[in-house]
Amino acid sequence: MRGTLSIDNGVFDANGVFDASSSTIDFTNSNGRLTLASSVTSLGTLDETLGTVVYDGGTQSILVDTYNNLECSQAGTKTLLGNLILNGSLSILSGTFDVSSSNYSLSIYGSVTNNSTFTARSGTVSLIGSTAQSISGSSDPAFYNLTINNSSTGVSLGLNTSVTNVLTLTAGLLKTVSYTLSLGVSGSSAGTISGGGSNSYIVAFDNSGVIGYFKRFTISTGITYSLPIGDATNYLPVNLNYTSGTLTNTFLTVFTKATKIPGLNSSITSYLNRYWDISASGASGFSYNVDYTFVNGDVSGSKAGMLPVKLSGTNWYKPLSTLFTDGTALGTGSFDNGFKLTWSGLTTFSMFGGAVDQSIALPVELLSFDAKPYNNNVKLNWKTASEIDNDFFLVERSSDGETFKTISKIEGAGNSNHLISYYLIDQEFHKAINYYRLIQTDFNGNQTNSEVLSIDMTKYEGVIIMTVNTLGQEVNQSYSGVVFDIYSDGSSVKRIQ
Questions:
Q1: pLDDT confidence bin for 447, thresholds 50/70/90
Q2: Domains and CATH numbers, the chain
């Protein structure tokens, strides 16, 4: 073929061998498509600013060139013949996209869609756009090396994504959204992070119940595992080092949230309005050191005298030699008077935060909070193990989990060090999914939110006809202990009253 091939809004199908060695392929607008169904000898001078080139012929070789959009479809393997530059996007719609045993690289200015198989081998994919980019599709991709160098709003995940070797953070944010970004290979590699900092980090945070995670495999003690995470606007990195333990097929998972640890005593007026949730899988007999960095906007009150604290389940932990009047003392904690908290000698994982050391209890200890159907209504039950200056609870309901309305005010016990049970029956619930939360308020007006519960009352029509204890004896609301609610259809629900 010689001369210029101009492709407008339509599709030019090349069903045989395609050779444009002395030609120019010109896309007159972005909707033009050149479909290659057989082998390709040359693309001549290819328009790299518009249009899409589609390799659509089963097993094919992808010629070295600078493309705009590149699309691979049909079964078979599409193998690179060299490094590629895509000024637009890469779409792997079916078949296998193979960088080849020569481990070629891809530099992509647009987005990546993976609906099939991406064979990364030891190649590198660099996302280097100046506009927002994304990694999406229906098949989770596993990159070998992935570089984020986006000068705009960063790269967003639309599915779970893994990097097995090196994650390079040069510029722009890598946003997990509601998915998980994994680094390393289970049992063999922790992967490597290159770069990272306030201008390029992993956004792994809880955004109103939508959580994005960063997961990093761990393979050995004595290694500092960096977790360069943050939220949408702040760099809030974590570093963790196992000093002992057995690590086999283990990994860490982390995210952050811009609120204080749930249940922290509202009488503590200087604290971090931020926590980091760090969990681990597979490790045994371990001890570790950790540090985490906050920003000035996370500080409520004063940061002077700040110490790390954490909540694991219903158990509070504090460093040794603090003034806090409760919590398990564990390891050594410190504050560098800047914005970093350090804690060594830890043996549990949990929610990490910070509070200024003072002679006061850490929690208003809410042991449980649940919602159950009850006599065609919703019954809310909650228990406290201890209360300090607890004035009252506000019970709130929502139809969307975001906008809440107060439906009742329940007086608190003030100060207590024994178990107290509370309940409320909601007769005006929505015939839909209902969301509930408690707002604990102390005598000074400080408030702490509970977790948000949900209960689906869309189809509920059952009626509780009797409540019995473990001996089968009918009991009333004043009974405390394990009970069974017997419904009109013969079913029963076990609970603690």
A1: confident
A2: 2-356 (no CATH), 365-460 (2.60.40.10), 462-497 (no CATH)
